[in-house]
Amino acid sequence: MTVPQELADTIVNPKAYSAGEPIDQAFAWLRREAPLAKVQPTGYDAFWALTRHADIQAVERQNDLFHNGDRATTLTTIEGNRRVREMTGGSPHLVRSLVQMDNPDHMAYRRLTQGAFLPQNLRTLEARIREIAREFIDLMASYGERCDFAKDVAFLYPLRVIMELMGIPQSDEPRLLKLTQELFGSTDPDMNRSGEAASSAQLTEDIGRSVADFQAYFGAITQDRRANPRDDLCSLIANGKINGEPMGHLEMMGYYIISATAGHDTTSNTVAGGLWALAERPDQIARLKSDPSLIPGHVEESIRWVTPVKHFMRSATADTEVGGQAIAKGDWLMLCYPSGNRDEDVFDDPFRYDITRTPNKHVAFGYGAHVCLGQHLGRMEMRILWEELLPRLESLELDGAPTRTEANFVCGPKSVPIRFKMH
């Protein structure tokens, strides 16, 4: 079936993700009428849009057949791709992190920090994370009865946790938050480097500058951690060896950047979206307050609901098929996670926020070999925050209309104004 051009343009449009409803409607139409459709949004190369949960999982299971690294791993315009290749000497990637790698590199690099993110090793951090959560809840209480939960709490708490794990001083947190927002919010004038709506070429240049700033910052950290290694993630990366050899500069910088950005922004988006959902549903807050054993269910539902990573791209290494559709070698595929997480075949009443939803087999962390390395840390941070916040919350309501970031890759709430009472 031919997908209407307007619909193809919608699924890449940052404003559609910000508005919420247009993207939900576009994906619902695609799941119903053309769940695996070839589209060519204006200004983009053609790609397959995978909107069904089962098809997304099928591609993520087959890492030799569907590569991350051969073409851009995130949506980019024809012009943006051309500029990136000019800037890198031919590579489609400004950053080379785990996300842009295929095996054998992917597994070798993942192994370097995998242990640090295993549940049994994270347990030793629980008490400290709880202290940090209480700090930010006290900060929220200090605002009186109104605050912007996204900006005043949700953006800052996971940032503090990952920066402490990395060994980065608190004084540098605002700088790293700003660089993260420039990288993930490049299409949003409130978040990006230029402070205005910019052309595709300008956005690519700005992202390049933000990446260069990250590299300069972590270049200095590398020198320090090689001279004075500590028990932190930065020391692990600075002194890490892959197959017995020191890491290449590009790969090392990619490791720092993904840790320092994805390590907080996705959790921040989910926490902000989870509170937004509760503020609109007093019955669900009441249930959580009366039965804290429901908190893990609320965490999972907030992850599904927000789906902070909107897509990743893959490319086929051979002629194959997915869900009965022939895919040619070299074809580009978009894994549409928000659509997979609203798939009516997997989730009953998927547009209902339900803290008791079980099972909740969302694909928000990806699936298979590339599943999010920090998923257990993210879940733990969220669980602890709700365990600490909910008993102190007497009342909660929205204090104006929340807004979302204008972006099509990693995004979520930008502002969640609330009125509340705490004890």
Q: Please count the helical segments.
A: 18
Quick one: CATH class?
Mainly Alpha
Structural class determined from secondary elements: alpha+beta
- Low confidence ranges: none
Largest sheet: 5 strands, mixed
Tell me the count of domains: 1
Strand order of the largest sheet: 1-2-10-7-3
CATH hierarchy: architecture: Orthogonal Bundle
Beta strand %: 5-15%
Question: Terminal Cα separation, in Å?
Answer: 57 Å
Task: Please count the beta strands (DSSP E, at least 2 residues each).
Answer: 14
How large is the radius of gyration?
21 Å
Indicate the mean pLDDT. Answer: 96
Q: Which word captures the global form?
A: globular
**Helix percentage range:** 40-55%
Q: What name is given to the CATH topology?
A: Cytochrome p450
Describe this structure in words.
By secondary structure, this protein is an alpha+beta fold. It has a single domain (5-352, 369-408, 414-418), classed as Cytochrome p450. Helices cover 49% and strands 12% of the residues. It has 18 helices and 14 strands. The strands form five sheets. It has a five-stranded mixed β-sheet, with helices on both faces. β5 (241-242) and β6 (245-246) form a beta hairpin. The protein is globular and about 60 Å long. The model has no long low-confidence stretch (mean pLDDT 96).
Helices and strands in order:
Blueprint: H1 5-10, H2 14-19, H3 21-33, E1 36-39, E2 47-50, H4 53-61, E3 66-67, H5 78-88, H6 105-114, H7 119-122, H8 126-142, E4 146-148, H9 149-154, H10 157-166, H11 173-184, H12 200-227, H13 233-238, E5 241-242, E6 245-246, H14 249-279, H15 282-290, H16 295-306, E7 311-316, E8 320-322, E9 325-327, E10 332-336, H17 337-340, H18 375-389, E11 393-398, E12 403-404, E13 413-415, E14 417-422
Parallel strand pairs: 2-10
Antiparallel strand pairs: 1-2, 3-7, 4-14, 5-6, 7-10, 8-9, 11-14, 12-13
Helix pairs in contact: 5-12, 8-18, 10-14, 11-12, 11-14, 14-16, 14-18, 16-18
